[in-house]
Amino acid sequence: MENNVRPESMERITTKALAEAFIDEQIKAVREQVGDKKVLLALSGGVDSSVVAALLIKAIGKQLVCVHVNHGLMRKNESENVIEIFGKELDANLIYVDATDRFLDLLAGVSEPEKKRKIIGAEFINVFADEARKLEGVEFLAQGTIYPDILESFKQAEGKKAVKSHHNVGGLPEDLNFELVEPIKLLFKDEVRVVGEALGLPHAMVYRQPFPGPGLGVRCLGAITRDRLHALREADAILREEFDNCGLAEKVWQYFIAVPDVKSVGVKDESRYEGWPAIIRAVNTKDAMSATIEEIPYEVLHKVTYRITHEVDGINRVLYDLTPKPIGTIEWE
Ligand code: XMP
């Protein structure tokens, strides 16, 4: 427990020089901990797991085995980026698992949000465990635990209100009894980002907006179908592209599209055209406990609406969600 407490003397990592000192220290510590054994890491492409991967590649090279599970609920090009950056540029030992069919088959017909979340979480562990069992000589599991995760878990332990269960690869089956490697567990998010940049990870990856573990699964509302999921992914990519173009991407905390399981009547090429609405959500927050709405300029809204309704098959309307949190949560499910 002791080494789960951030010492008061620990300086906040705000500069490249401090980040480099931290990296050197952790490289030494990781090498000492794992010796010549292999370390497994679930690499989602999120900030925390990416920073851990880059750090461990530096420390132990090919002794690190990264597993990227594509659950079919990633945003457009997300898995491709992980393969490009880690598999190619950083030459990591990367196993890519396309588990889209496993996930989407299990989710077919399931409309209840909590049930969907549980299926996705449990199947993620199943897929990861299947991969882990195929490997030989792995004794360690690296995780992108950060300090807020530890602080929130503490509260739970004291019997206070549980904040949330974290989406690290907790709950692995008992036969996979790994020792944990958690090199960034005493860092806050802003420090993780400084360390990530010092490790040479792309700015867009280090500063990317939060993305929930269940991915587009909680934005393709109700029972997920492949066609609606595809439409959501394409519409979301357009929103992100337009936010990049007008500078909002740097400013807004979280922005995305949700697509409900509802169709309305529209008209296209002089014929009846039934389609789903794409709902724009763009919020700002400090701690995700409450959130305010970003006032997107009308010209951006018009452009996004035009592009989505003209470029994405199956979407015939665009709506703008103006609900703060509370009363709405940030995600729709
Ligand atoms: P809500 O919808 O509860 O979301 O207002 C608050 C923040 O948490 C993110 N979120 C998740 N993050 N695993 C995660 O890692 C999850 O299961 C999950 N669900 C929601 C959400 O995107 C928002 O930033």
Mean pLDDT: 94
Count up the helices.
Answer: 11
The CATH topology of the largest domain, please? Answer: Rossmann fold
Strand order of the largest sheet: 3-2-1-4-5
Q: In CATH terms, what is the architecture of the largest domain?
A: 3-Layer(aba) Sandwich
Question: What would you say this structure looks like, in words?
Answer:
By secondary structure, this protein is an alpha/beta fold. It folds into 2 domains: 2-206, Rossmann fold, CATH 3.40.50; 219-320, GMP Synthetase, Chain A, domain 3 (2-Layer Sandwich), CATH 3.30.300. It is 42% helix and 17% strand. The protein has helices at 16-34, 47-60, 78-89, 100-107, 113-134, 147-157, 189-198, 203-206, 226-246, 248-251, 298-311; strands at 38-42, 64-70, 93-98, 138-142, 179-181, 254-258, 264-268, 271-284, 292-293, 315-320. It has a 5-stranded parallel β-sheet, with helices on both faces. Strands 6, 7, 8, 9 and 10 form a 5-stranded mixed β-sheet that branches. Strand 2 (64-70), helix 3 (78-89) and strand 3 (93-98) form a beta-alpha-beta unit. Helix 1 packs across helix 2, helix 2 (47-60) packs across helix 7 (189-198) and helix 9 (226-246) packs antiparallel against helix 11. The model has no long low-confidence stretch (mean pLDDT 94). Xanthosine-5'-monophosphate is lined by residues 167, 210, 212-214, 254, 288, 325, 329-331.
Quick description:
The protein is 42% helix and 17% strand.
Descriptors:
alpha/beta, GMP Synthetase, Chain A, domain 3, 11 helices, single chain, globular, Rossmann fold, 5-stranded parallel sheet, 333 residues
